[in-house]
Structure formats: structure tokens, C-alpha cells
């Protein structure tokens, strides 16, 4: 956990590593954290919005409609078919009492705190030997952003515009900095030089 008023940055996971982690967590019967990382990296929302989700919000539907806790803006998220299958599989294994239950609850029945999730993420990073320095709840959102950007190919600038809107950033420069792209792009300039 970071000290008060200390600036910390989360890193992103490479998509293949992210999917492998989700699969390993599921195989190890850690269904809630498999689902948490899945939803976080497929939806790209903040942890505060994930913790507010109930089963009825994501079961048997094609879209998730939320009001973001931080921005108070409404957001509609598409739930693709592969994600629906993972949601159903986790639901069957977790067996909540009702679909009105919050998804991410502890054994005591209370919704996880962000601090507790970050502690568990540190344990997951070590246990699964993740090649990432700063693995926290924000990693899921950054992983989403990087995957959208990386899959854009020749449409990278359009992807940044879309991500800027999805993340509710004031402009594309903020999104570029958020994803860590600016420094990478600047460093690539040195690779253009040769003898």
C-alpha cells in the first residue's frame, strides 16, 4: 500500500499474460479474482465501479450500464460473447445466494475494499511470477487501454480518441501519457538513427 499523498503508478500487463493469469486463477478455483481481473481488463472501468457491480448487472445481458462513481457520467459497456461465457462459468462456481448480491464480496459477506484487493494483487504477482513491477487495481484499466491501442494497428490515433472518451480524459495527450505511450514514442526516435 502506498503512503499517504505519495504518487504511485500502476503498470499494465501484456494481454497474453493477462489472459493466462485469468485462466490460472480460474483453474486454482480463485473464481472471484479471475472474474475481477477479467471484468477490469475487459471493461476498462475504475475499481470503485467494479466493486459496485451486482450479479444482475452482468448476467444474461449484452450491455452493462453504469454511472461512474468518480465522474458521475453514464457509461454503456458491451459484454462480448467470450466474456459472457466466463461470467457464467464463474457464477456457477461462486454460487451466490441471489443475483442481487454484490459480486466481489469477502467470506464475511462484505464488499472487498480497494486496499484489500491491492494486498491480494501483490500476493498474486508473487505467486504467479508476474513480470510487472506495480500490479494494482489500476493495472486492469491500463491493460484494457493498452490492448485497445495495440490492436488498433494503423488506426492508433483513432484508438486514442476512443480511449480518451472511454476514460473520460480531457484530451488525447492525457490518454497518451496515462498509457505510458509518450515516453515510449520519444525513445523510439533514437532507434531511427543508424550508421
From TrEMBL:
Q: Which residue range or ranges hold the Tyr recombinase domain?
A: 8-191
Q: Which residues form the signal peptide?
A: none
Any idea which UniProt keywords this protein has?
Answer: DNA recombination
GO terms under biological process: DNA integration; DNA recombination
Alphabetized GO MF terms: DNA binding
Q: Which Pfam families match?
A: Phage_integrase
What the entry lists under InterPro entries is as follows: DNA_brk_join_enz, Integrase-like_cat_sf, Integrase_catalytic, Tyrosine_recombinase_XerCD
Q: Coiled-coil region(s) at which residues?
A: none
Q: What is the designated name of this protein? A: Phage integrase family protein
Taxonomy of the source species = Bacteria, Pseudomonadati, Bacteroidota, Bacteroidia, Bacteroidales
Amino acid at each position: 500500500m502506498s503512503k499517504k499523498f505519495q504518487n504511485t503508478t500502476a503498470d499494465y500487463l501484456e494481454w497474453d499474460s493477462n489472459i493466462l493469469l485469468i485462466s490460472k486463477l480460474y483453474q486454482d478455483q480463485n473464481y472471484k479474482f479471475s472474474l475481477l481481473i477479467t471484468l477490469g481488463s475487459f471493461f476498462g472501468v475504475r475499481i470503485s465501479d467494479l466493486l459496485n457491480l451486482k450479479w444482475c448487472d452482468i448476467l444474461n445481458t449484452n450491455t452493462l450500464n453504469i454511472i461512474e462513481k468518480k465522474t458521475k457520467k453514464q457509461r454503456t459497456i458491451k459484454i462480448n460473447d467470450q466474456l459472457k461465457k466466463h461470467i457464467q462459468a464463474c457464477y456457477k462456481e461462486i454460487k451466490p445466494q441471489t443475483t442481487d448480491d454484490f459480486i466481489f464480496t469477502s467470506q464475511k459477506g462484505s464488499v472487498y475494499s480497494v486496499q484489500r484487493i491491492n494486498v491480494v494483487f501483490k500476493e498474486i504477482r508473487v505467486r504467479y511470477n508476474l513480470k510487472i513491477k506495480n500490479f494494482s487495481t489500476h493495472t486492469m484499466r491500463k491493460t484494457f487501454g493498452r490492448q485497445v491501442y495495440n490492436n488498433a494497428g494503423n488506426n492508433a490515433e483513432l484508438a486514442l480518441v476512443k480511449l480518451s472518451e472511454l476514460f473520460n480524459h480531457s484530451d488525447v495527450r492525457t490518454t497518451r501519457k496515462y498509457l505510458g505511450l509518450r515516453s515510449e514514442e520519444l525513445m523510439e526516435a533514437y532507434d531511427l538513427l543508424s550508421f
